[in-house]
Amino acid sequence: GAVVSQHPSWVICKSGTSVKIECRSLDFQATTMFWYRQFPKQSLMLMATSNEGSKATYEQGVEKDKFLINHASLTLSTLTVTSAHPEDSSFYICSASPLVQAETQYFGPGTRLLVL
Amino acid sequence: ILNVEQSPQSLHVQEGDSTNFTCSFPSSNFYALHWYRWETAKSPEALFVMTLNGDEKKKGRISATLNTKEGYSYLYIKGSQPEDSATYLCAFNYGQNFVFGPGTRLSVLP
Questions:
Q1: ∠ CA(A25), CA(A26), CA(A29), 5° rounding?
Q2: Are B15 and B77 in contact (CB under 8 A)?
Q3: Contacting residues of B for A93, CB less than 8 Å apart
Q4: Which residues are registered as beta bridge partners of A24?
Q5: Minimal CA separation from A74 to chain B, in Å
Q6: 8 Å CB contact of A32 and B93
Q7: Of the given ranges (A84-98, A99-113, B10-24, B56-70), which has the lowest mean pLDDT?
Q8: Dihedrals phi, psi of B25, to nearest 5 degrees
Q9: What is the DSSP-derived secondary structure letter of residue A86?
């Protein structure tokens, strides 16, 4: 149990385009989903926390207009990188906390984004 | 700024060797300490959630200890196998959010 999927796994796009990444909890309902970013040889860094039906909470230094988060249901959150630029190239990974196990986060496999 | 450190950064061991690595975290505002195993191209897999000082958890050949007063946790792998090769992440949990360490990359050579 506690499986989280993330799509796409890989995306290559041109500078200026927008990219949407989906995060789904497949066998549980998640009150909260988290979006992280990881640059090479660095730790996973929390970008934002999203609660179903409300606006996401962004970490300091993360542009909310650049990284749009939608958490429309208890099983789906999306991250849209708007007008992507090469410096947005990174590994993006989501996690979800179950309703009944809020102290635990289950992770998706991540999405590697390359902006040309 | 909360900082979580892990050492060593990477480790190569022979099959059958036992090994251990360290996670250091802030000793204040502690809620929980999490260990994850992250194999390439897969999702990080939760290994342990530890909350109490002196806690020791075990899962097969892997075990972990926790010292919240001095802010460290050890992860031990007994008799390493090639399938143990992965990056081991620890995460300090304060409230709802996690702060991750950079991970220890373990390679077990057959």
A1: 55
A2: no
A3: 44
A4: A5, A76
A5: 17
A6: no
A7: A99-113
A8: -145, 165
A9: G
* DSSP 3-state of B93: strand
Q: Give the pair of three-digit tokens for residue A94.
A: 């989501």
Other beta carbons within 10 Å of B18: 11
Give the whole-angstrom CA distance, residue B73 versus residue B4.
11
| Contact of B31 with B51, CB cutoff 8 Å | yes
SS3 state of residue B83: helix
Q: What share of chain B is helix, strand, coil (3-state, %, to 5)?
A: 5, 55, 40
B46 touches chain A (CB under 8 A): yes
The string of pLDDT tens digits covering residues A73-85 is 999 999 999 999 9
Q: In what order do the strands lie in the sheet with B5-7?
A: B5-7, B19-24, B72-77, B62-67, B56-59
Contact A108, B43 (CB under 8 A): yes
Residue A4 and residue B43: Cβ atoms within 8 Å? Answer: yes
Looking up tokens 């542009």 gives A63
**What's the CA angle centered on B76, arms B24 and B66, to 5 degrees?**
45
Residue carrying the six token digits 């789906």: A76
Asked if A58 is an interface residue toward chain B (Cβ–Cβ < 8 A), one would say no
What confidence category does residue A104 fall into, taking pLDDT thresholds of 50, 70 and 90?
A: confident
CB contact under 8 A, B100 and A43: yes
